[in-house]
Amino acid sequence: MTDEPAEDTTAQPQDPENAERPEARLDRAVRAAEQALIEFEIAVETFRVEVENFSRLHHQKLGPMYARLDELDAQIAEARASLTGDPEDQRKAREARAAVLPMPGVDELFHDWMDSDGLSPEAASMLTDQPVRQPKRVRPSEEARKLYRDLARKAHPDLAQEDQERARREEFITRVNAAYARGDEDLLRELAEEWAAGPVPEEVRPSESEELYARLEWLAQRKELLAVLARELEESAIGSMLRMAPDDPDRLLEEIAEQLLAEVAGREAVLAELVQ
Q: Per the record, which residues fall in region Disordered (predicted)?
């Protein structure tokens, strides 16, 4: 029986050409994190829309019932205070009436559109569709003219030797012309300082790894913000109600409506006894 050569178990060196770059693994991690974030955003936005829609339905269907309950509470408190004449009952009656939402006042509807003399000039101008007045012509000062001429000589686009430099000068001269047209001496001085400082050096671009790590950090921060939003939605009054009946929120509204109707009937009975 012939001896066969023993199998070489020594680890073979990895071919450098076929070795995976660290950036490739990092890139895969970024792509996975992006997909996970997208799915999380979809879930949070879906729940947000559900909360918003349920809140709207809750207000439309049950809002009048809540308003009726508040009005009945106020009438009951007022009737009781009228019967007893007790200062404490009168205080409770005032508080109950204050809890009934009043119609908004004109100033609330128009916010800062109105002043003590009626509509503010800005609002009146908008409502009467008055044309905008042309700005007064400005005569630049001697200092402004001096600054302008100096900048125009130094930054004129025709002095550029390359297209990129010409574009930079054209953009700069456009700002100079606008400042001179307004007679803005201070801005012309700032532009003179800007030109004297020279062009802004090109920003050094980060490496591929730095960009990928920055992307991962942003994704993590974004997920934290979404998590906070999701928690706030879940802990809100409407969110809590939705979690009680996630599969049939309409039925939940019907149950709440039945409870409110029963409360309204009870309050009406109490009020009838007080005013009879």
A: 1-27
C-alpha–C-alpha distance, residues 26 and 208, integer Å: 10
Do the Cβ atoms of 188 and 180 come closer than 8 Å?
Answer: yes
Residue-wise DSSP of 103-157: PPPHHHHHGGGEETTEE-HHHHHHHTTPPPPPPPP----HHHHHHHHHHHHHH-G
Using 50, 70 and 90 to split pLDDT, how confident is the model at 88?
A: very high
Neighbour count for residue 179 (Cβ, 10 Å): 22
State how far the alpha carbon of 109 is from the alpha carbons of 36, 104, 113, 114, in Å: 44, 7, 9, 10
Q: Which two tokens stand for residue 173?
A: 């001269």
Angle between helices 237-244 and 208-235 (to 10 degrees): 80
The C-alpha torsion from 223 through 225 and 231 to 237, rounded to 10°, is -140
d(CA 123, CA 110): 10
Going by C-alpha positions, the residue among 237, 213, 225, 211 that lies closest to residue 40 is: 225
Question: 175-218 pLDDT, tens per residue?
Answer: 988 888 888 889 999 999 999 888 766 667 788 888 888 888 98
Give the rounded distance of the alpha carbon of 126 from its chain centre.
Answer: 27
* Burial of 38 from C-beta contacts in 10 A (0-12 / 13-18 / 19+): exposed
Distance CA 160, CA 162 (A): 6
Residue 270: which region, alpha, beta or left (left: phi > 0; alpha: psi -120 to 50)? alpha
The number of beta carbons lying within 10 Å of the beta carbon of residue 105 is 8
Report the C-alpha gap between 69 and 63 in whole angstroms: 10
